[in-house]
Amino acid sequence: MNWKNVLYLVRVDRKSGRLIRGVKATRYRENSFVAYWPYWTALIIGVIGGYLSNLAASAYYSHGVPAGVKPLSIEAVSFFSVLPTLVLVVSLVFTLFQQIQIGVKVSGQVIYSLPITWEEHAMASILANLLGWPAALVVGLSSGLIVFSAFNGLILQALLTVAVLLGAAFMASSITESLRLIQVRFTGAVYKSSGRAAIWLRFITYILIIVIFYIAYFYIIYGTGAFVANLTAAQNAVWYVPFVWPALVVSYLAKGLYLLSLLFAVLSALLIAGLYYLAVDLNKRYGLYEPPAITVQKSGVYAPKTGILGRLGFPSVEAALIRKDLRAFTRRRELLASYIFPIILIILAIFESVGITSGGVTTPSANIIYVAWMFLLPTSSMAMLLGESLIGEEGQAVWRIYASPITAKNLVKSKFFVAVMFSIIILVISSVVGVIVYHPSLRKTIALVLEAFFLVPALASVSLQVGFRGADFSASRRARMVRQEWSLIGFGVSIVAGGAVLAPLLLLYGLAFLSHTSISSLNLIIGVAVSGVISAAISAFFYKTDVGAANDLLRKAEV
Amino acid sequence: MYTQAAVELNQVTKRYNEIVAVNNLNLTVGTGEIFGLLGPNGSGKSTTLKMLLGLVTPDKGSVNVLGLDVLKQPVEVKSLVGYVPEAANLYEFLTGIEYLDFIADVYGVPTAEKRQRITEYLKAFQLEGREGDMINSYSDGMKKKISLISAFIHKPKLLLLDEPLNALDPRSARIVKDYLQSLKVQGVTTIMSTHVLEIAQAICDPIGIMYQGNILALGNMDELRRQASLPNSGLEDIFLKLTGTEDLRAVVEELTR
Question: What ipTM was predicted for this assembly?
């Protein structure tokens, strides 16, 4: 294997992921300090975390080994032994999730015409998948382990654990690579044979996959403590599961069982090699992908329709833009992720309330937080996410908007309609689920539904502004739609705008809580009505500025 | 002879940082002409075409298209122009027919006409049978055909075509060439950039040769021959002489060494 080729491929892969194609920034510019922030941040956190852990451990063991507790060296290495499995699971979730968002690699890409072997392609793909959060996690943990161990005479154990962490991450990414290739082969065959149904098949499949991964993600992020505790107890018992083999190398080392440690080291190495060669073999078979021709309409049945949008009074240009965006959001898998989040929020609220993610059952009807979450959060996040992404999602085809007789008003109206329409759909779904799960009173239900309804145009108009100002039209390595800094600005402004809309109701609840009284119906009606007025004012103001921002975008339309 | 100007660029300059893409350009194209814009890579052809549509804003000078100021009335100009960019980035998640439907709606083509025109163009460019497939499965040539149809579909008065025949099969290329000639008779103006000098010589009149953001020579073939002092020569020799690249033997010798 030529490692230089691997390095070049990884570099190309990652650079394509960092390209920013804003409205004005048509040339490649990179600030390496910003580009590598996850790694140096992880390194700093790791070093500080390792040092603080050392201080805490020193304090704990300052008067000798407490009763019922093992010596520091044993307790520490016992903790080290959990980390490989943690890294493996996190890397698996993140790399798979990343693959969902990245467009497929097609055979037309020039990279496949270069004299590079499939071994090198597979290795580069596996390593490139790891860059990002999995690599940052390994950097953070490794630096923390080394700093902690340097103070406690455990440096050899720490270095071995770091090597095992790298192996675990590589193992996870190899699995992802193989799954990616199997998925390419499988979906290609299914789409070819399923015609129009392929659109919906793909839509539903991706929703399911993303929902599962988001839930796994939240489970790991919020349940890390429980996850680690469970692993410590469980992984020795399930030694026959190959995924825990790397962890067992460290675990048996900690117990002084060197032969067993060596055995699992050999088994892990063989497993990693096996997974790598499986990925190579699958790359050879299915690595070159040709997009299947998905037939949406059969030949000879074309009949243009006025459609419901025309009957609703939209001019043909706006109706065309809305129809295009609706199709984009059911057919482009990279866009599914951006509007699947509200669905995840609904599912998470249900899981939280029945104790799946939090580890304990809450009393749903008594918990106003969950009720408010269910009614307000999914709808708000839908309005925010869609508003921010609806401009950048035009991608490289944005020239079509620039070159067509589309006015700023046409553009804003059609995008605003799409954001509001999808948000209202989510509002209906979350309200129905909220009523079924939490049984709020009719009064509370009506108030929350109206508040959510008022949030929609306000947040959609605010986030459209962000979408226009911070549009990111880059399509590779994955479509991002909005630049990070603008996304953060949008988040802040949306919180302020959303807070302003909800302020009357929050004020009423605050006063009622302090005075231990309940809110009268009249006050509730007045509060909701004031929210409506605030929403209308915010929406009108931002809608007007959206038209200005769209004008800027179209005027500076440099392609 | 057509006298009314379809396109007028007056002292137009466009810079990209330190690079001058178009330098003080004056150009008039008459109504009903097929104007060929030639030049080496990076000579400013595409930038010029984009400025005519308002896709690139000039730093200096004025651009008038069909009697309208592009900077002041961009939407009106766009509704009268059909544009084919060099790289056809289309909405790949749409089918061919959905894309054309979208374009026709954006330009406000009436429903009955839309149906008729789409059907005719699909037949002419032999896309029947594939029009219901998503564009991501189309070849480059098929995408170019969709791009061309979307420029023709609203019956524009001005066509801006950037390398329109690239990737087309010979039959479709012939259709486009003949179609442009028939549109010329109807008074439709075409400005096309191309590197295929035979095509430019065959269908364009007049021809402008751009180099480093300037027009080096302008006119019909006879006028170009006179300007290059190359009587009885073809367009290739004229082009190479005017752009200062006529003596290529040394380059080839260097490469073969």
Answer: 0.88
